[in-house]
Design brief:
four-stranded antiparallel sheet; 6 strands; 1 helix; alpha+beta
Length: 134
């Protein structure tokens, strides 16, 4: 059942990715945008009207960490070793997600809005973005 679900999401994401139209002065939000700090200055895409793309990023991390302490045991009056480390278990961290909205507003005017959805404090959201015009 899990394999079918994974295959379904791969097919759906491929179909949805194929439906995106290019935007003017666009910097990709995925791995293609790494080390690109500004949008391109060349107008390589003709303006054909108002367009909006909505996307997201999601990550779910698995953590398997261990630690050790070679310090000399120090016992308090209750017999508890104050140098004893707490035991760690393997598991998943809280999920992280971003919401990306890109819009082509007019010829040479594009809006980019990225919402960073917090993992530890779910009530907090940070917003980055603005309107870019060339």
């Amino acid at each position: 059942m899990k394999i079918r679900l994974i295959i379904f999401f791969c097919i759906v994401s491929g179909v949805l990715n194929a439906q995106t139209e290019p935007l003017q002065y666009f910097r990709p939000n995925n791995k293609l945008g790494i080390n690109i700090f500004e949008s391109v200055k060349n107008d390589t895409v003709p303006f054909t009207g108002f367009k909006v793309t909505v996307g997201g990023n999601f990550t779910q991390d698995f953590q398997a960490v261990n630690h050790q302490n070679r310090a000399v045991p120090v016992y308090d009056i209750n017999g508890v070793n104050s140098n004893q480390l707490i035991s760690l278990t393997n598991g998943f961290n809280r999920a992280m997600a971003n919401l990306n909205i890109n819009a082509q507003l007019a010829d040479g005017v594009r809006m980019n809005l990225t919402m960073y959805l917090s993992t530890r404090h779910h009530q907090e959201t940070w917003v980055k973005g603005g309107i870019y015009s060339i």
